[in-house]
Write a structure and sequence with these properties.
Elements: H1 4-26, H2 32-56, H3 62-88, H4 104-122, H5 125-135, H6 148-153, H7 155-172, H8 176-196, H9 200-204, H10 216-244, H11 249-252, H12 255-269, H13 279-297, H14 300-318
Helix pairs in contact: 1-2, 1-10, 1-12, 1-13, 2-7, 2-8, 2-10, 3-4, 3-12, 3-14, 4-5, 5-7, 7-10, 8-10
Length: about 325
């Protein structure tokens, strides 16, 4: 039986994913108002989505889960690279060593699925995952390669979701006071973004401290602060879900096709709509396109097609 509360949360978050990508492509980060909006979204939407992924994680059939995520990653990596080469009239071999744009999450799911049971066996999984997320920034390797930076930076959210997620959600959804506090904290994040001028790369978790041109102490402190703010942001999003009741349930039940396919739509439409000089027009267009993209991709035909393709690939791998 599906959990409508979690489906609502997932629906809100997948809309924010699509909305954020349209805002990036249509308006861009150079517009100050859009920078504040985008940074606020990025502080919470992927950490929260990964947290919920951890909540759903079960400690069985690990190999099958890994194969499943690879059966999505490989064909969509090929599809996006080919699509990108057609749109931009050139092919980049850089995509051989890193997942294409939105597909880093699938790489993360592979690694988190393998690591989480191991961390639980070792003991203190949450603490160790946080330490790993801090230490990856000290590595001499390019943290952008294979999305290794993002995978480890966001690891704690998956682990916390797996270990404590259900208990946390049960507490948050029982009292409207938490929704009010969550709303206040999201406003607080807006002010943090406005007055801190934090670089977007810290929210992506994609660069090492050296790549971010900061020293060890500043890098560790900044990443820790971002983690704390994002963690409270996750709690805020989960708490305010109760306000929306079941309005986003349909989207939350079809996050797979929306996640995997919206990138194609964003890439195409963003070539026709550019509003770097008009935030208001860009915002309205981004909302309009995001809503319609989500409403179209939630149809069962898209999810069934993706799952059928995945099943065929999984069978061939097992053979």
């Amino acid at each position: 039986m599906r959990d409508t509360y979690l489906d609502t949360s997932k629906g809100i978050l997948i809309f924010l994913v699509v909305f954020g990508h349209f805002l990036e492509r249509i308006i861009g980060w150079d517009n100050e108002t859009n920078r504040i909006l985008l940074s606020t979204i990025y502080f919470v939407h992927m950490p929260a989505f990964i947290f919920i992924s951890g909540v759903f994680f079960k400690h069985k059939d690990i190999f099958q889960k890994v194969v499943y995520f690879l059966s999505l990653l490989i064909p969509f990596q090929i599809a996006y690279v080919l699509f990108d080469s057609i749109i931009n009239h050139q092919i980049s071999f850089a995509w051989l060593i890193k997942p294409y744009w939105i597909l880093w999450y699938l790489v993360g799911m592979v690694v988190w699925t393998i690591l989480t049971p191991l961390l639980k066996k070792i003991g203190y999984p949450v603490l160790i995952s946080i330490v790993l997320s801090m230490l990856i920034g000290l590595s001499p390797i390019d943290n952008y390669l294979f999305s290794v930076g993002r995978v480890f930076v966001f690891l704690p959210f998956f682990v916390i979701g797996s270990v404590y997620g259900k208990q946390i959600i049960e507490v948050l959804k029982t009292n409207r006071v938490y929704a009010f506090l969550g709303f206040l904290f999201l406003i607080f994040i807006v002010f943090i973004v406005k007055f801190s001028d934090i670089e977007s790369s810290w929210l992506f978790g994609s660069l090492s401290y050296k790549q971010s041109d900061v020293g060890m102490f500043e890098g560790l402190l900044t990443r820790l602060l971002v983690f704390v703010i994002s963690s409270l942001g996750v709690l805020s999003i989960l708490a305010i879900t109760q306000i929306f009741k079941t309005k986003f349930v349909s989207l939350g039940q079809h996050t797979l096709p929306i996640y995997l396919l919206h990138g194609f739509i964003v890439i195409v439409l963003s070539h026709f709509f550019k509003y770097q000089d008009s935030f208001a027009l860009g915002l309205m267009m981004s909302v309009f396109l995001s809503v319609n993209t989500c409403l179209i991709l939630r149809f069962d035909v898209f999810e069934k097609s993706i799952k059928s393709m995945s099943s065929l690939l999984m069978k061939s791998i097992k053979l």
